[in-house]
Design goal:
heterotrimer; A mainly alpha (about 325); B mainly alpha (about 325); C alpha/beta (about 525); A: about 325 residues; ABC transporter involved in vitamin B12 uptake, BtuC; C: about 525 residues; alpha/beta; Rossmann fold; 2 domains; six-stranded mixed beta sheet; 22 strands; globular; transmembrane helix (chain B); cell membrane (chain B); cell inner membrane (chain B)
């Protein structure tokens, strides 16, 4: 009984991911057919650069969602980091390093704050992170009251280009992200994360420190937002204090498309990274097809709902299959 | 409706004072302190005129926050309010095109459309089971796109002059918006704490499990709450268009997060089931006063956001303290 | 406390576990009060009590899940204040929880070692090694049919229970807490062998069970809790079944019931269910006459909860027919059921019974609130007039009406839930364990209300974990076993023994029927 049900589950667990890969391929084909440079190194680098901010941010968000919580502060934290990089990275030869350390510190601190509020004080995560989101938006505005500032060239050059004109830097970073997730998922923390999101009460009775696990998830997510803010700065070369609502929606869309349950405990960061890829290619495809901006907006909202509906449906199917197998 | 509402309210107040009234009064007192502070930092202001100006500027937030309060009463949230406000403003100016006569049909049409967006939110949440913050964020993005497609961002048409007059004229020596705010508050309180639907909304927000077993119309109530939220956002947008004489699609955006702040400051519980409009109203007045103070002190808008965020978190911590969860 | 006879109290010196005057409150509810208890080395001590007597809270306090408000605990003479399960484990205290604390999405192997499964140099879980070790541990405890790599969620309930017990056992704790270890376990001999082995290495066992025969077989001594207090601490052999019974219930059982003549009326049945099938409901048929109180009995988790929920449409039924007064009725949702006069008083009072932020009067008037409104606006005076006669029927004091329902005692909350059912015009009440966690006085009121409702022509389907209630209140009793109706006990033959024999799946004359205590 156990062995076949295990195989079923693995196949079904891969179900949403398989759909995601197919979708990605289809949209990439449309995009490539319309854009000549799409398949060149330049085109691929371009695509990866467009998607990497979302990929890093939604990978971080995935940790929080897996633990059974929400985090709305991500985009605002990214904006703060962007403003910081645009402000300090041009000071001296090591401005880029100072800026990198600064954004990681800011991201980590924001995550720590969220974690303390949610895991330490037991506040509802949605409301608490809306609080930190508004506060962070304020901080971004205090750093830069209007779009502006400059990002050190060294950051933009080294993070957006190719290594020896062959391997895009963004691809290396993505690979590192995937590797980090692969390890993290199999550590004790990873186990605790899934356990806390699946059944917090059982996790606690099993000796898992649920609040600490959630706190760590928020901090790691914050570090990811910091890194995403750094990458965003490298892309744009300037600072913008206004956080974009669309990015927030895209982060949750990536997570949902990637098959992570918003109830926690099911899914993973690979899916979210793939989801980010799908959304990026979708934007590229819509642009290549010459779809007007307002339709793109409509599409973005609809795809979020569709992703969730598919996610719900596949979870229901998986459950039914498992019940039948058991 | 409003005439029968007044005695209702009095009776409710006499019989049993909801525990939320005290924090609401506290927030009102803080608002008073802030107004005193404004007087202190700029002695030139006339107190009465200042209060009147704050009340007028608070109406948009106060109206939109009522809808947010209903969503939060059900343990949800409505992140589409900003976009709906923008759409409402754009629509009323587009439809009336500077003519007062068109107001008669344009007004209901606009409000119906905005309520319709709310209905879509409610249906997605109640029928498909999408988390409210995602459903409303997604519908906001989509409908923003629709609005962008139809109008290209800024209204080319002027707002009906009647609406502008409404927002600037006085009745009995008091600006009309203040009368409107008063009337709205009476209706809102009567609905939320006096009506059958309001009672059922409290019940559903308080114990969704019990509501299911007791056979409350859960889907209908959810759709109604989000529909009303859309309606209120639309109304706020229409008033804002009249106030600023020119509507833009993004003019509602700065109001979205303050609606949440107003509700939370007003003592509503974010997980649902608790909160009164008087508190939300107090929260809206407080935030509007804060805004005025920041303007008077010519401080950065960033500081406003920062303070708002800190206040929300403080309010959450404060209301978390007494209800320590057992087990 | 006058009837508490602590006849045997173990000496504190030399005890492995020593609890002194432990107290714990949740808000207004006292879960534990002044409970002292000792465990001697190698001793198996039974812990008995009705539902809500405080057994679970005591287990949780001992395993570090809740912190007692008052009192002290000592393990091996050292002060013992565990803040979590790991602290408890460090003191050699291990627990197999009743609610099963395994994480369903993790493998059996990882669950056995939580929260610290073995890792490799990269800090990743060493899966192969962990599974090998798990296999060895399971094998050492006589389990060979559960592959360690299986997800716990894919195991049957009985298998999970065994894994749960092994997880508590394999570290060879000094103190072993077993909370209802046979609730889902068919193979009791396996458990008894494990307990014997634990005693063999010197462990002391606190054995919490409903089943008196298990307690008699395993335990030398037993402690009885009632309403959060310890009322007995004596050698099992020195107590008769009746002794134990009345210590747990705190009263002579029979005297609290007032016998009334059956009120069953002729005519078409109020509710007739034919061949109901669905998830957790297997071919259930029964008929309920007006004026009848039909009991439902069953051990924990035999599908009774699902049946009650399915009857009001909370879960879809796949097939079967329901008739009300001879006419087909589609009870597809709680609303539809209410329109037909079928109302459920659910098991989970806190989450499904009461609306915790509303006042008591609002809780009761909710289904009919529109009747107290004009132009959709509620008149509070009309609302009170609507509610007051009903509160009399359930003995609810009028002064509770204005209070938030969360401020009431469990008994009064339950009366309010019943009052709401009556207010909504129910003709057929589905009562799921309505006296759980309710004080004696409120129980009396609830019995009276049930009998009065039936006498007025209402029909009652009544599930209770307290068999004496079923025996004394019901006109007949259905017994559920594994999602089916295993049998029916007619009024003449209603007795606890008879019900229990059916409930444990043994049939009326079967052997080895569990002697289940009330509760």
């Amino acid at each position: 009984m156990a062995a076949p049900s295990g195989r079923w589950r693995r196949a079904l667990g891969g179900g949403p991911t398989a759909v995601a890969v197919l979708l990605f391929a289809a949209m990439y084909a449309v995009y490539a057919a319309r854009t000549e440079t799409a398949t060149t190194v330049f085109g691929i680098t371009n695509l990866l650069n467009d998607g990497i901010v979302l990929a890093i941010a939604s990978a971080g968000l995935t940790l929080v969602v897996l633990a059974g919580e929400f985090d709305l502060s991500g985009v605002a934290v990214i904006a703060v980091c962007n403003c910081v990089v645009a402000t300090i990275s041009t000071f001296g030869d090591f401005g880029w390093l100072v800026a990198l350390l600064a954004v990681l510190a800011i991201g980590g601190a924001a995550g720590l704050l969220n974690g303390l509020l949610v895991a330490g004080l037991g506040l509802q995560s949605l409301a608490a992170t809306i609080g930190t989101m508004i506060a962070a938006e304020g901080v971004a505005l205090l750093i830069l009251s209007a779009p502006g500032g400059t990002v050190a060239d060294v950051i933009a050059d080294s993070l957006t280009g190719d290594i020896r004109s062959v391997v895009p830097v963004a691809a290396v970073i993505l690979a590192g992200l995937c590797l980090a997730w692969m390890v993290l998922k199999r550590t004790r923390f990873g186990i605790a994360l899934y356990a806390a999101g699946t059944d917090a009460a059982a996790a606690r009775l099993s000796g898992i420190d649920v609040p600490r696990t959630k706190l760590k998830a928020f901090v790691l997510a914050g570090l990811c937002y910091g890194a995403a803010g750094y990458m965003l700065s490298a892309q744009t070369g300037t600072g913008d204090p206004r956080a974009s609502d669309a990015l927030l929606l895209f982060m949750y869309a990536s997570v949902a498309i990637g098959g992570t349950s918003l109830m926690g405990g099911r899914g993973g960061a690979f899916g979210s990274i793939a989801g980010a890829g799908i959304l990026t290619v979708m934007q590229k495809m819509l642009f290549a097809l010459g779809v007007a901006e307002f339709y793109t907006n409509v599409f973005n909202g609809v795809i979020m709902i569709v992703a969730l509906v598919i996610g719900n449906a596949s979870a229901a199917v998986a459950q039914r299959m498992r019940r039948r197998a058991a | 409706m409003s005439d029968s509402a007044v005695p209702m309210e009095a009776e409710g107040g006499r019989r049993r004072m909801p525990p939320e009234i005290l924090p609401a009064l506290g927030v009102l007192a803080c608002t008073g302190l802030l107004i005193g502070l404004i007087k202190l930092v700029s002695p030139g202001t006339v107190l009465l005129a200042q209060v009147s100006a704050i009340l007028v500027s608070a109406i948009f937030l106060a109206v939109a926050s009522f809808g947010q309060g209903l969503a939060i009463l059900l343990g949800g949230i409505d992140l589409s309010i900003g976009v709906v406000m923008g759409l409402g403003g754009m629509m009323i100016s587009g439809l009336t095109n500077g003519s007062n006569d068109a107001l008669i049909w344009a007004m209901p049409a606009t409000l119906a459309c905005c309520a319709g967006i709310g209905l879509v939110n409610g249906l997605g949440i109640a029928l498909i089971g999408i988390p409210p913050f995602i459903m409303t964020l997604a519908s906001a993005t989509s409908f923003f796109g629709v609005g962008l497609g139809l109008t290209a961002g800024a209204a080319q048409a002027p707002v009906a002059p009647g609406l502008e007059t409404l927002m600037s004229a006085r009745g009995l020596g008091v600006p009309w918006p203040i009368w409107l705010l008063l009337g709205f508050a009476v209706i809102a309180i009567a609905f939320q704490n006096g009506s059958v639907t309001g009672r059922r909304l409290y019940a559903l927000g308080s114990s969704p499990g019990a509501a299911r077993v007791a056979g409350l119309p859960i889907g209908g109530l959810t759709v109604a709450a989000y529909g009303l939220s859309g309606l209120c956002a639309g109304l706020a947008g229409v008033l804002l268009a009249g106030y600023s004489s020119a509507a833009t699609l993004t003019m509602g955006d700065p109001f979205l997060l303050p609606t949440i702040a107003a509700v939370v400051i007003g003592g509503a519980r974010v997980t649902g089931g608790r909160g009164i409009y008087l508190g939300t109203l107090a929260g809206a007045l407080f935030l509007s006063t804060l805004e005025t103070l920041i303007t008077v002190l010519s401080l950065s808008q960033g500081l406003r956001d920062l303070i708002q965020g800190v206040i929300i978190i403080t309010a959450l911590i404060a209301q978390n303290r007494p209800g320590a969860n057992p087990g | 406390m006058s009837d508490s006879v602590p006849s045997v109290v173990g000496p504190s010196a030399g005890s492995v576990l020593d609890l002194r005057a432990i107290g714990k409150r949740y808000g207004a509810t006292v879960a534990l009060q002044d409970v002292s208890l000792t465990l001697l080395p190698g001793e198996i001590c039974g812990l008995l009590g009705e539902n809500g007597a405080g057994k679970s809270t005591l287990v949780k306090a001992l395993s570090g899940v809740v912190t007692p408000d008052t009192g002290e605990m000592y393990v091996g003479g050292a002060p013992y204040r565990p803040r979590n399960v790991l602290d408890a484990r460090a003191f050699g205290v291990a627990t197999a929880f009743q609610e099963l604390s395994l994480v369903p999405t993790l493998s059996v192997a990882v669950n056995l070692f939580l929260p610290q499964p073995g890792i490799n140099r990269l800090h990743m879980i060493a899966r192969r090694r962990v599974e090998q070790e798990a296999k060895a541990i399971l094998g050492a405890h006589g389990i060979r049919d559960i592959p360690p790599a299986t997800l716990v969620g894919d195991l049957s309930l009985g298998m999970r229970q065994r894994v749960e017990i092994v997880r508590a056992l394999w570290r060879q704790p000094r103190i072993l807490l077993l909370d209802e270890p046979t609730a889902a376990l068919a193979d009791r001999d396996w458990l008894f062998a494990q307990v014997a082995a634990a005693v063999g290495w010197g462990a002391s066992v606190l054995y919490i069970s409903h089943k008196l025969d298990e307690v008699r077989r395993l335990c030398g001594r037993c402690v009885i809790l009632r309403n959060g207090r310890k009322v007995r601490d004596a050698a099992v052999a020195a107590m008769s079944d009746d002794d134990i019974f009345s210590s747990m219930a705190g009263r002579s059982v029979v005297e609290t019931f007032v016998a009334v003549p059956p009120a069953i009326r002729p005519g078409p049945p109020m509710l007739r269910a034919t061949g109901l099938r669905g998830p957790g409901v297997d071919d259930v048929s029964f008929s309920l006459a007006p004026g009848e109180i039909l009991g439902v009995a069953g051990l924990e988790g035999q599908g009774q909860a699902r049946l009650f929920q399915s009857l009001i449409g909370l879960h879809p039924l796949q097939s079967g027919r329901i008739e009300m007064r001879g006419k087909p009725a589609a009870l597809r949702s709680p609303r539809a059921a209410r329109r037909h006069g079928v109302v459920l008083v659910p098991e989970e009072r806190k989450t499904e019974g009461i609306f915790k932020d509303l006042t008591t009067v609002a809780n009761i008037s909710l289904p009919v609130i529109a009747r107290a409104a004009r132009l959709r606006l509620i008149s509070r005076r009309a609302e009170r007039r609507l509610v007051e006669p009903i509160t009399e029927a359930v003995d609810l004091s009028p002064r509770t009406l204005k209070l938030p329902i969360a401020a009431l005692s469990g008994g009064n909350q339950q009366k309010a839930v019943l009052a709401r059912a009556l207010a909504s015009g129910a003709r057929c009440l589905l009562l799921f364990d309505p006296t759980r966690g309710v004080d004696v006085g409120a129980k009396q009121s609830i019995y009276r209300m049930i009998q009065g409702f039936a006498a007025a022509g209402g029909a009652v389907l009544f599930y209770s974990t307290e068999l004496d209630e079923l025996v004394h209140l019901c006109d007949r009793c259905l017994v559920i076993y594994r999602n089916r109706i295993a049998g029916e006990v007619p009024r003449e033959a209603l007795s606890q023994e008879h019900i229990l024999a059916l409930a444990s799946g043994a049939g009326p004359s079967g052997q080895g029927a569990a002697m289940e205590l009330a509760g």
